[in-house]
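It is worth pausing here to work through a concrete case rather than discussing structure prediction in the abstract. The textbook approach is simple: state the sequence, then state the predicted structure, then interpret. We follow exactly that order.
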Amino acid sequence: MQKIAILGAGESGVGAALLAQAKGFDVFVSDRGSIAEKYRQQLTQAQIPFEEGTHSLEQIYAATEIIKSPGIPDTVPVIQGAVERNIPVISEIEFAGRYASGKFICITGTNGKTTTTLLTYHLLKSAGLKVALAGNVGESLAGKVLEGGYDYYVVELSSFQLDNMYGFKAHISILLNITPDHLDRYEYQMANYAAAKFRIAQNMTSAEYFLFNHDDAEIMNYMASHEVPGTQVPFGLKAADGLAIQYQGSAISASFSEIEAKIETANSPLIGQHNQYNTMAAVGAALLVGIAPEQIEATLGTFQNAEHRLQPVGEVDGVQFINDSKATNVEAVWYALDGIRQPIVWVVGGKDKGNDYSTLQPLVQEKVKAIVCLGVDNSKLLASFSQFGPKIVETQDVQEAVQLAKDFAEAGDVVLLSPACASFDLFNNYEHRGRAFAEAVAALKSTVA
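Step two, the predicted structure:
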């Protein structure tokens, strides 16, 4: 019996362990940290051997293959030791892909991949297709493959998940954008990060489709000097020759692969230019699997986006509060500021990721009437924006931040939490920050009701 060692006992690791056991492998799970109770129970119930707080190298290196969590860098000693022993190290996605009978629609990009993944899933599900949602969006692909019965898998993939995929092939792959992020994992080289993102198209033939953002400079730079497999389907907002999918007014027009369609998007709740790119990509995938344009048009209007991504969380005295806590980099905030038409009170801050805020300065000058810095160290934000006119205040308390923002705002304005920073100075993660913001808005609303 072949032995599989799995490093990391989170969602992907436990999903891979259960699938590997079902396929007849001898499975061992090792987590250097502590295992969440939910996952410990799943492993115990399945009688899969596991350990936490350590790595038993003898057991791990007895495996014929190692499946690692996407959060574990290739540079850590346990992985280096596997490489030295010529033990293949793969991702959970790679492993799950071997046993899936359905087709993969895979989505990556620095920003927008969760929205695009959820929208693609919504379009397929609403059309009555047997479709699973998996990957970086929350559930393991391995777990979904184990469930079985799906014709399509819509999979959000981070660059970390793409890194250890080798034989895996998507049937439709989507690349939304490439901007600096996670560069510490890629030797601080954008070329390395871009190459990781382009693994989304690996192993494709002309029978598969690669949808990509023709307006994105990093994508186009990479494609100018690299052969990218698959049938290429460029989408964009800027007029260009050969665009397969583009906006014409409020409608998306598509012309590729014997598809000719025009789809009105006026009923979509998604706001901002970045969501136009996300919508073009999702619509392209839906057309490729055979969903009728009128069905897509109707379904766009019933979509609800993920929490913490430009999510309306309440209105107080005519001031709308929007939770965009997932916007942890400058690019995501740029799209949020650009997409909102009303005057903005901007709540920003947290643990700085080496941000260059200069690209936001024109939008701040044009649209932002006040800034509330919610973080432990706001010095860089103060230096970047104090000269541009909006009033700036600081706080380390989310309830005070919401109250201050409300005081600056007038009826018709938007208070936007779009932090541009990691959350770890004051919160557990971006979800915790977003929930705390929404709760503070609800508390404020109750006092003025």
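Step three, interpretation. The first helix runs from residue 11 to 22. The two ends are 66 Å apart (CA to CA).
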